[in-house]
Design goal:
Length: about 425
């Protein structure tokens, strides 16, 4: 049973408390607790330049024993509209202070502030599946990691690195990526439901200018340009050099890959699978319906090594969330949304068509009853209402309402978040 401990102070941290807060973060994530000077300097600069009141700590007799951070983010809804999001990260509770309600207190503080700011949703990447459902979050996107056995792909090594559409691939350096990447990412994220914004720091961290991790190694970067010279793809990758028996067995690991067109995506994957000495390609986190492995002549050369939930969403404003996205189908649905935290529950009527959606509070009889976390799982178009009803998580108050919900909410391609935060 969770027992309140009012003597443990939960509040925004001060500048002088930041090193202790960072120590608690490292401890919670089972990293070396005392940060290196490089990490401390980089993290402190990020703290001082950011929204310091959104760094929360729980303090027991002056020692930080739990941590929580949020920051401003934009999330792309179905159709390309972006909504303001409260991005949650750095959540830890030290093992000596579990089951004392510390996360609940920090989460309540943060979500209330996000609601007051006017954020439509909160987001996070869950380290553990069972934690965040009780705070109204639901898994809204999923991911797959692939491992490609390059010799079995069926690709012609003489031609597979050359784009088929008249485009070209060039190697670039980190400075080029910082110039070319932000504009490409904007195009990609505005077309990809579930994608989130990246700030300047992201590009600096992922090209080695800012080094939170002292073990950083410089990756390779390649850019795809279409036949008319447009930058439509970028990839960052590292190669583990490994020879034995006088034969190469190198593994290429993708750190991130962005493509704004299918042609760019196909070309980059084929290029990665054509590099001399590389016998294995690890894809990194990809969309569950990524073009890989079907860009390969032999898709069986790619094995799914990880499949799981990725971006979790907590809806803070049902009306604005449902009105922000687009709909392919047309119809009307009355939803009874349970929100035990009282942030946005109630009964709502959704009127949807190709022209957009209208969501209003109503007193009409509910046709579907569901929890706010399950609505979050449906909102980006990935989950099936029919499946949730079969699991007992959605209750159909009118026969056929679940199928209607799927016709209105589901998308032809699955949502995806390319980022970890």
């Amino acid at each position: 049973m969770t027992r309140p401990h009012p003597t443990i102070d939960v509040r925004p941290i001060t500048e002088s408390e930041f090193p202790d807060w960072l120590r608690a973060v490292n401890t919670g994530f089972l990293r070396e607790p005392i940060p290196t000077d490089t990490e401390l300097e980089a993290r402190r600069a990020q703290f001082e330049a950011g929204e310091t009141d959104r760094y929360l700590g729980a303090f027991d007799k002056g020692r930080c024993v739990a941590t929580f951070k949020s920051f401003t983010q934009e999330l792309t809804a179905v159709g390309g509209t972006t909504v303001p999001a409260d991005a949650v990260t750095g959540v830890t509770v030290t093992a000596t202070h579990r089951r004392r309600g510390l996360l609940t207190r920090m989460m309540a503080h943060d979500l209330a502030a996000a609601k007051e700011r006017g954020d439509v949703v909160a987001t996070l990447i869950a380290a553990e599946y069972q934690i965040y459902g009780r705070y109204g979050f639901g898994p809204a996107t999923w991911m797959t990691e692939w491992t490609v056995d390059v010799p079995r792909t069926g690709l012609d090594p003489r031609r597979s690195g050359i784009p088929e559409d008249g485009g070209r691939i060039d190697l670039v350096d980190g400075e080029d990526v910082r110039k070319l990447g932000p504009e490409l990412h904007e195009r990609v994220r505005r077309a990809q439901p579930g994608a989130v914004s990246r700030d300047e720091t992201w590009w600096k961290v992922n090209t080695g200018v800012v080094r939170f991790d002292p073990s950083w190694t410089e990756p390779h970067y390649a850019v795809y340009r279409s036949a008319d010279g447009e930058v439509d793809g970028l990839v960052s990758y590292a190669i583990d050099d490994n020879w034995h028996g006088k034969q190469p067995h190198d593994t290429l690991s993708v750190r991130w890959l962005l493509a704004s067109t299918p042609a760019a995506e196909r070309a980059l994957w084929r290029y990665l699978c054509s590099i001399d000495w590389v016998t294995k390609v690890k894809s990194g986190w990809r969309a569950p319906d990524d073009l890989l492995p079907f860009v390969l002549p032999n898709p069986r050369a790619a094995t799914a090594t990880t499949q799981g939930d990725w971006l979790w969403v907590r809806i803070l404003d049902v009306v604005r969330a449902l009105e922000a996205r687009t709909y392919v189908g047309e119809g009307s649905l009355v939803l009874e949304v349970a929100d035990r935290d009282g942030l946005t529950g109630g009964r709502y009527r959704l009127e949807a068509s190709a022209a957009g959606g209208s969501c209003t509070p109503t007193t009409r009889n509910a046709e579907l009853t569901l929890d706010i976390g399950d609505l979050a799982a449906l909102w980006l178009g990935d989950e099936s209402t029919v499946r949730l009803a079969a699991l007992g998580r959605v209750r159909e108050e009118r026969a056929g309402a679940a199928r209607l919900a799927d016709a209105l909410l589901r998308t032809s391609r699955r949502p995806w978040c390319p980022d970890m935060f």
